[in-house]
Design goal:
Strand content of chain A: 5-15%
Pfam family, one (chain A): SGNH
Number of helices of chain B: 17
Shape of chain B: globular
Protein name (chain A): SGNH domain-containing protein
InterPro entries (chain A): SGNH (IPR043968), SGNH_hydro_sf (IPR036514)
Order of helices and strands of chain A: HHHEHEHEHEHHEHHH
Strand content of chain B: under 5%
Distance between the termini of chain B: 32 Å
Keywords (chain A): Membrane, Transmembrane, Transmembrane helix
Radius of gyration of chain B: 22 Å
Radius of gyration of chain A: 23 Å
Oligomer: heterodimer
CATH architecture of chain A: 3-Layer(aba) Sandwich
Helix content of chain A: 40-55%
Helix content of chain B: 55-70%
Distance between the termini of chain A: 48 Å
Chain lengths: ~280, ~450
Amino acid sequence: MNSSEKTNRAPYRPILTAMASVAVLGVALVGCGQQDSGASKARADRTEVKQEATAGGGVKVLWVGDSIAGAEAPAMGAALKASGVGFKDASSDGGGTVVDSGEEITKMISGDTWKQLGENIKAFKPTVVAYQVTTYDWGTPDTQRAAYEKLVRTVKDAGAKTVFIPSPPIKIDDFYKKHESQMATAPKTAEEVAGKHKDAAVYLDASQLWGTDKSAKKALRGPDGIHNCQQGAAAFAKWFSTELGKREGFEPAPVDKWANGGWTGSDRYGKQSCSK
Amino acid sequence: MTSSAAVAPLVPGEPSGQPSGQPSGQPSGQPSSQPSGRHRTPGGRESARNHISALDGLRGFAVAAVLLFHAGLLDGGFLGVDLFFVLSGFLITGLLLGEAAGKGRIALASFWWRRARRLLPALVCVVLVVLLATWAWGGATMLRFALQDTPWVGAQAVNWHYIGEQIGYWDGSGTRVFAHLWSIGVEWQFYLAWPLIVAVAGRGRHGHRTVAALAGAGALVALLLTVWLGTAVDTTRAYEGTDTRAAALLLGALAATAPLRNLAGRIPRRAADLLCLGIACALAVSWTVTGGERSPLLFKGGLFLHSLGAAVLIVLLTHVPGTYAARVAGSRLPRGLGELSYSLYLWHWPVYLLLLPKLGGLKDLCGGGPLGDWITAAVAIALSVALAALTKAYVEDPVRFRKGWARGRRGLTVVAAAAVAAGVLWATVPEPVPGAGTVDVEQLR
């Protein structure tokens, strides 16, 4: 201990006070959202875009899927909102599947998806539930079929229509490798189920947009080879709103109205390292 | 969903460097630094000094592993963080139990003040400079995240912020200059909670046993929590949670208690040498073969086993005198890196993020490929070491030893002014909204 310590009984007290004040101030500012204007906008892009249907003929879309669907959602929200269509993003970062393949992880995820779906249907009252086949839709074709049939039934009981969309082509990394063959049967099964329930479900083949080659430019994958960045989201939103508009009878808004909106600043694209 | 490329944030340890020419580590006479059992000798003080050098050396190995991991050159190097945690638990608990035994009580405010004086000045300096550098050279996304993360860094809780942001799931470290500071948050939260427990449980004749029982039980609970949370698609919660990573800190704490120290002290030197060799090899293999911080086995007991091995190694190095492993670990290079480890850890990640993308030309000049990777990493590491050496010499040591510019109250004034400057900078730099011009509308028509 040096002399300055000896003459000062508690030299640390003012510092502790100052540090505590700075910490409290920091937490308070975070809580106040002083730096959060962009983040709020991003959140708005991500989960919340609920637009009362007006020009869209009362159409309300509930968007369900995994984080790939989540990366498409900000642009979809903007495009559908501009078209007067209601939209709610219920995609999940990390899962989103309705298929319980028997593995612990999909049991957990699908349980959560079904729970959220029930709550969202009750609260949002969609006219369309759009389900993008997820990268966790594992299991046998029979398991997948049972889950998709249940989805169609659930949505029909709520007075809405199911729209199935296949997942875009993605990079198959070590994690997906052992499920690759199961992932390949999922879109075919979804198409088959939609064909069987023509009054209640439809299959929109997104391979018309993305193609089937994950490394092709057309696939519009981002740096991770799995999710799309802003351009891919905009392309999907335009394609989806056009296809859905044909079936649900609304006119999709022109791209100039929404394609360069605030949704492009969503933090989601920063997290995906779309730009540094 | 997971993706293969992984850049995990990594942890610094509990620094204990001393000015050059002085022995490093804890003050002499602390229980955790003393040989025990059959090895207690009249030369114990010198022996203890060697053992603390060995702990500095372990920090050196740990920080080197982290540096190589973040440069993409050592897949399991993130486990160096786990070693830092075990070292922290060991040293802090040793200090607290020593104080409880010597004075009959633990002065908690003084403990926290010493921790703050040791850790905050360098952190404030790095945050201030990195914010400025990111403003100058980082892209809009990087600056935006830096500004969002700064208050959490200041509150020593950035690990929970990153859990909320699912940073591991998104491989989001590549756009966050403070991503590595999650471990500083974990350590600070441990420093706040654990001393309270030791202050109560460490009293009396059975204090060491009680603390050992609590640390062991706590580590097992943390293991169960890790196994449970590790099954999630996003493993950030299991990887960066204070409760889950407490397993490593508490195993270190357990190793600092008398029952474990006495047990280690009864091990013959030759047997200890063999044990140290085996554990060191196992740790080295795990650093080499583990395929990233989301390897499923990590959360099924892998991290716990690594921590356990590290804890046994530490207790052997510190309580069996004259082991070969202690001499290797305490040799000049690892010890020197260990003394720089805290500042080196703070600097390396922002240096990597801001510098490496600009070294593409150098990489091409070296023909690209692995050679180019090693050369660009060497440049980034060299700059990080230089910044760390400057920070240690002109910030850490002056404040810690109240010398030079930090004599008397000046140190406090300057550090407080730097903290205020960082706060003002954070509040005044406009947060950019990225995304402008990212959509080519013509392609949509």
